[in-house]
Amino acid sequence: MKKLLGCIRKADEDYHLIEENDKICVGISGGKDSMVLLYAMSLYKNFCERIGKKHFDVIGVHVEMGFPGMDFTEANQFFASKGIQLVHYPSQIYDILKIQANENGSLKCSLCSKFKKATVISAAKDNQCTKVAFAHHADDAIETLLMNMIYGGRISTFKPAMYLTNTETHFIRPFVYAYESDITNALNEASIPVVKSTCPMDGYTKRQDAKEMLNSLYKAYPMAKENFLLALHNSEQLDLWVHAASEE
Predict the structure, then answer these.
(1) What is the end-to-end Cα distance of the chain in Å, rounded?
(2) Which of 120, 206, 219, 244 is the most buried (most CB within 10 A)?
(3) What is the reported pTM?
(4) Is the pLDDT of residue 23 over 90?
(5) How many Cβ atoms from other residues are within 10 Å of residue 176's Cβ?
(6) What pLDDT score does 248 carry?
(7) From the CB of residue 180, how many other CB atoms can be counted at a distance below 10 Å?
(8) Where in the sequence is the domain holding 207, given as residue range(s)?
(9) Is 48 in a helix, a strand, or coil?
(10) Confidence category of residue 247, pLDDT binned at 50, 70, 90
């Protein structure tokens, strides 16, 4: 957990993620990444207050997607025992996804993502939060970069901090310097419960393909993992093609 908190602190300092008197809404899916983020952000809050750095609040918001069989009893008990607030926000997302499914009956992941983000924003506003925190980590950022290059022809990934003007919402990603292995280690160390996803599309995505592709690459070239992350913020050595007309 100490290493993870160091990653959060570095991201906060590099990208000014958290400001005085912020109230951070951590989006909770039940998976390891978001569950660890909520607990780690609570610890980071306590650390900042202890050293007199800044004061902010943290709450977890779980959007109830409607997938059957997801039991948050253990998660509720864990966070309650730590004095961390976890709010459950009802939705009809799964019912809508089934109506608008693909011809083969599979759910549209992109549509699900849009609905989920919109609902989290609503929940954050209802709870007077100033920012929404997602648990996307370094491996996610690299996978997103690869997917955008393969499927979109662009070199881009998500930002550590962003602002959506149409919803007037600030998003932050405190785990951008943390790898999935760091999160797993922290999960086991703190005995944080995980709620298994019952989404029928879980594990059958293009992102999973990208993850497996990168893991194969890392086995052959272990140094690539840290270098890929470095490349995402190594702006001094960015060297891409520029059209002659753009230089005039």
Answers:
(1) 50
(2) 120
(3) 0.90
(4) yes
(5) 26
(6) 54
(7) 15
(8) 2-236
(9) helix
(10) low
Tell me if 247 is assigned to some domain.
no
Tens digit of each residue's pLDDT (9 = 90 or more) over 145-170: 999 999 999 999 999 999 999 889 99
| 244 found inside a domain | no
Total domains, the chain: 1
Q: CB count, 10 Å around CB of 127?
A: 15
**Calculated CA dihedral for residues 26, 29, 34, 36, nearest 10 degrees:** 110
In 3-state terms, what secondary structure has residue 144? helix
The CB-based long-range contact list for 73-80 (8 Å cut-off, 24+ gap) reads 74/193, 74/195, 75/28, 75/30, 75/35, 75/193, 75/195, 78/192, 78/193, 79/38, 79/39
At a CB cut-off of 8 Å and minimum separation 6, what does 199 contact?
65, 67, 107
SS3 state of residue 83: coil
Question: How is residue 236 annotated by DSSP?
Answer: G
Question: Looking up tokens 């958290």, which residue turns up?
Answer: 18
Q: What CATH number is attached to the domain comprising 136?
A: 3.40.50.620
- Helix, strand, coil percentages, rounded to 5, for the chain: 50, 10, 40
For residue 118, being part of any structural domain is answered with: yes
Provide the b/e sequence for 208-229 (b: ≥16 CB within 10 Å): eebbeebeeeeeeeeeebeebb
